[in-house]
From TrEMBL:
Keywords: Arginine metabolism, Hydrolase. One of its GO terms (molecular function) is arginine deiminase activity. The active site is at residue 391. It is an enzyme of class 3 (hydrolase). Transmembrane segments: none annotated. GO terms for biological process: L-arginine deiminase pathway. It comes from Natranaerobius trueperi. Its EC number is 3.5.3.6. Pathway: Amino-acid degradation; L-arginine degradation via ADI pathway; carbamoyl phosphate from L-arginine: step 1/2. This is arginine deiminase.
Length: 401
């Protein structure tokens, strides 16, 4: 079950439908939770169902992270271990509180435990289970959770990278998203769907800042990696050493350095692949990007070279002319507005056929004119989390092209 490109016909994908965690978002913590607005859950769920229906109609098989997780926790008796890993990444410092939270989660059904780990655990739910009162009882108003909600969980793309058959687990840049990757870590180890996959980086504590939204699979032996707000220089060095030299799974890593800004947090918020030779780029950054090519050299280390331009770098790797299509229009206002609405975050389900939010009218029109088939989905609530169709999907299998 391999992924050897960005555009090969998509066969299996992993999603997460947003749940109650969105109702635990509140204004004081929006920035820390990496949201700019509060989505309306009911509508966000309907929109997400629309997304999964579009995928199903296109023949894609869908798996939901929480369902897969419940299966392995029961089957492999992993509940205790999984809860403990979450507690280790939480802020709970008081041993009595930790024990009470652990008992609370252990006593729930597995499905409920998984749901609670994602939606967050409120302090008042655990109060009666604690033997003693603690300092945290007094701070309930400022932060009401022992386990904070994971509202970005529906952006499954960011949790890791499926490259060929193996999985590189992300190391989330922000503390508020760290626990999200535990789900993928366990699935890779225990779920039959990932039986043939090897985890390439198991130590989640290093490298700091490596997120799936920054990695595109250009072709079987080449990755494109965004050097961005979320994926660091150290992570790219580490990735190059591991994939090009140690494991020798890839021949090249093409690095695209983008401005380190919230609006462009990952490469896939400004740049995606549409077809064999077509890419979509947000024009607002075209003069600010720098490109580099990383390859293994004959002494067993990595050579890094600066490239002249994005298109010439892609052309050299693909060995064919490429076309870069600009999102929005040539006016910076429309392009920037639509990029903020994830116009550039397209999900290819086969070469030349992509899923996009319908709100980005100008970009979708341009794509149509360029011969790209666009399947439009509603996303006015989903987009409030700052992600689009590519961010919301973790491909498990694509047909080779
Ligand atoms: N690949 C992506 O760009 N994912 C979107 C992540 C949005 C999330 N609220 C975040 O800021 O991390």
């Amino acid at each position: 079950m391999k992924v050897t490109s960005e555009i090969g016909p998509l066969q299996k994908v992993m999603l997460y439908k947003p749940g109650k965690e969105l109702e635990y978002l509140f204004p004081m913590y929006l920035e820390e939770m990496l949201f700019d607005e509060i989505p309306w859950l009911k509508r966000a769920q309907e929109e997400h169902d629309g997304f999964s229906d579009t995928l199903k109609k296109a023949g894609v098989e869908i798996y939901y992270v929480d369902e897969l997780m419940s299966e392995i926790l029961d089957r492999n008796n992993l509940k205790k271990q999984f809860i403990t890993e979450h507690l280790n990444l939480s802020d709970i410092a008081n041993p009595d509180t930790r024990e009470a939270v652990f008992d609370y989660l252990m006593n729930k059904t597995t499905t409920e435990t998984v749901k609670t780990l994602i939606k967050g655990l409120r302090k008042d739910y655990v109060e009666q289970l604690k033997k003693e009162s603690s300092f945290s009882d007094l701070t309930k108003e400022s932060f009401p959770f022992y386990l904070s909600p994971l509202p970005s969980m529906y952006f499954t793309r960011d949790h890791g990278i499926k490259a060929q058959d193996d999985i590189i687990l992300s190391s989330m840049f922000n503390m508020s998203r760290k626990r999200e990757t535990l789900f993928l870590k366990y699935l890779v180890e225990y779920h039959p769907l990932f039986a043939s996959s090897k985890p390439l980086a198991e130590d989640l504590s290093w490298p700091h800042g490596l997120e799936g939204g920054d990695v595109l699979v250009l072709k079987e032996d080449t990755l494109i990696v965004g050097y961005s707000e979320r994926t660091t220089e150290q992570a790219i060095e580490w990735l190059a050493h591991n994939l090009l030299v140690q494991e020798e799974i890839f021949k090249e890593i093409l690095v695209v350095e983008i401005p380190k800004k919230r609006a462009y947090m990952h490469l896939d918020t400004v740049f995606t692949m549409l077809d064999y030779d077509k890419f979509l780029l947000y024009p607002g950054i075209k003069d600010a990007i720098h490109c580099y090519r990383l390859r293994k050299n004959s002494h067993g280390s990595v050579d890094s070279n600066k490239e002249e331009s994005l298109s010439s770098m892609l052309e050299k790797s693909l060995d064919r002319p490429v076309k870069i299509i600009y999102s929005g229009e040539q006016t910076p206002i429309t392009a920037a507005r639509e990029q903020w609405g994830d116009s550039t975050n397209t999900l290819a389900i086969k070469p030349g056929k992509v899923i996009c939010y319908n709100r980005n009218e100008r970009t979708n029109e341009i794509l149509n004119k360029e011969g790209i088939e666009v399947l439009e989905i509603e996303g006015s609530e989903l987009v409030r989390g700052r992600g689009g169709p590519r961010c919301m999907s973790f491909p498990i299998m694509r047909e080779p092209i």
